[in-house]
Amino acid sequence: MNLGIAGQAAGLFAVTNVDDLLVLALFFARGAGLRSAAARVVAGQYLGFLAILAVAVAAALGAALLPAAVVPYLGLLPLALGVKAGWQAWRGRHGGEDPPDGAGGGPGALEVAAVTFANGGDNIAVYVPVFATSGHGGMIVHVAVFLVLVAVWCAAGRFLATRPVIARALGRWGHVLLPVVLIGLGLVILTEGGAFGL
């Protein structure tokens, strides 16, 4: 494995996925204390990131799956999930019931995957030219490094969510922060991409 390409891949991953750390910490905090919830967050992160890589690799090989005009509309996924999470938090607070979550509590793998993929529009835009110019061998190195770093990102997100100060803040405000972050993320994706003429 070429260490120069591996280092470039690590840097590229870190730069394009900084925003995922906060979202992952929020998802881990939402399923705090539930082992199955943590596994669902990791599975969802991998599913979403594999979808990002599949689109980027296909586009780099000349078989673009998503026209550029469609990518900004991926912002509708986190926007819808944020509205849903906000509604559930509001209902749980005003109805005296706990907000319903994924099976067994916490976020579901498909929910995490959808947010990861929707947030990956910028990743795809960056990865496609890098993959296209790095050749097949370089692309394989990038993908391998990215998949290893997804695990590192999940560990860092869980670490952040389990620090006492952060865990208390997320435990107290996570039900508010998650919808706000998801709605904000959706709006940023929509507006930066010019969806609906924004």
Summarize the structure.
Helix content is 78%, strand content 0%. The protein is an all-alpha fold and 198 residues long.
Parts with pLDDT < 50 across at least 5 consecutive residues: 96-103
Radius of gyration: 17 Å
Count the E strands. Answer: 0
Q: What is the helix content?
A: over 70%
Major sheet: none
Gap from first CA to last CA: 44 Å
Strand content: under 5%
Question: Care to describe what's here?
Answer:
- The radius of gyration is 17 Å and the shape is globular.
- Helix 1 (3-16) packs across helix 6 (121-162) and helix 2 (18-30) packs across helix 7 (164-193).
- The chain is mostly helical.
- It is built from 7 helices and no strands.
- It has helices at residues 3-16, 18-30, 35-60, 76-95, 109-118, 121-162, 164-193.
- Helix content is 78%, strand content 0%.
Key traits:
mainly alpha, single chain, globular, 7 helices, about 200 residues
Write the layout of secondary structure elements.
Elements: H1 3-16, H2 18-30, H3 35-60, H4 76-95, H5 109-118, H6 121-162, H7 164-193
Helix pairs in contact: 1-6, 2-3, 2-6, 2-7, 3-5, 3-6, 4-5, 4-7, 6-7
